[in-house]
Amino acid sequence: MSLAHLLLLLWSWGSLRAFDLVEKENIFQKVPCPAFLMFDNAAYLADMTFELPCRCKPEEVTAVVWYYQEHIGSLHTRVLTDFDGRVMVDSGQVRVGSSMLARFSIRMFSLLVFRAQPEDSGLYLCGTRHGDYFYAYDVDIQSSQEMVAAFTDKGQEPREDEELGDLHIFTTFWEWTRCDRCGVRGEQWRIGLCYLEKPGLSSRFLKNVPDVVSCGSQAVPGNLRTAAGRRRPPELMVRSCMVPCRKEAQSGLMAIFTFISKLGSKPWVPKVPIQFHKQRLGHGLIMSCPGARPEHAVAWDKDRLRLYRTSFLKGVNRSMRVFIDHGNQFHIRFAQLNDRGTYYCWRDGEMVAGFRVTVTSRGRYYASLSDPETQYALQAALVGYVLITAVFVLIHLCRCCCYFFVCCPEL
Prior knowledge:
Layout: H1 3-17, E1 39-45, E2 50-52, E3 65-69, E4 77-79, E5 104-107, E6 110-113, E7 122-127, E8 133-142, E9 148-151, E10 162-164, E11 167-173, E12 186-197, E13 205-206, E14 212-214, H2 222-231, E15 235-241, H3 253-263, E16 274-280, E17 285-287, E18 298-302, E19 305-307, H4 309-312, E20 322-324, E21 330-332, E22 341-347, E23 350-360, H5 372-407
Parallel strand pairs: 1-8, 1-13, 9-15, 16-23
Antiparallel strand pairs: 2-6, 3-4, 3-7, 5-6, 7-8, 10-11, 11-12, 12-14, 12-15, 17-21, 18-19, 18-22, 20-21, 22-23
């Protein structure tokens, strides 16, 4: 056999060995289940999407079932999956206010909850169809309605910790987000959630720090849980930032369009997809950045005007017609003619979409009960009706009392 044939044979044998199958590591063989069911404490902000992995299970179990309990010891347990552990939900179809059963998904033994709400707080248990539990979570969803914002550029600082006897209430902040814009001055922020430290909490709840859990944890007594949540709402810290944009080489038809537009032979082609929307004068509009979640760094611009959170964050002023909520959505209440323009949204430092809004005062508009304006009008009419009824009843009660005491004084 010649040397060339020998080398070819050795190369072929080495190539076949390179395709040896490597078995994927099984994490369930390394994570034993506890002898007694423990609850892993986790806290999130409302409207966030989170994942709860089933960290341990017997090796012979091929499908898990997730259960939900509102509080420990509850007699009512809700099943969140079919008994084969297969439930898939398209997160793009999930809307605020959807029922809990329409906002979760099961993927690779993990439970995903989309746009979580405060009423979703409670205990989530991973087990079998026969009711055997392996792992559990104590989930606390904190509302963003009363969130307090602090702007470091204005010298504002987060709230100080509170000491009430042996109770210590404080805020734990997440990491800073990415800069929401690039090439221009942007902003970044971090979310702070309420936590407390109290000796003597239940040992069945897993804690990263001894005797420290989130304020809405089931380890905290009910009356103390409510009081702590009211005294310490979530916090938001905002600061300025400046980062350069990543240079991406243009290729194909887009590069030709850009070159021609620089020569003035063709109008400018936008860098991001543009959606066109016609808005009726005096009605509200809410815009969401495609693919964005509350934990993302999202920014909004109107044409060349930067809409910074220091001026447009919800709650900065008591009466705001145009604002950005804590879920990164852009709101226009009672649209005016000067609201027309192109609104751009940034996500994690990259411009991703634009909305060209035109405001018109003509055309028919069919109101529905889902419209915020219709709900506001109905609420105002109902409140007015209740007030008028209360005044009417009060007047007649006064007349009856006067008649009773004047005509029947001996009684």
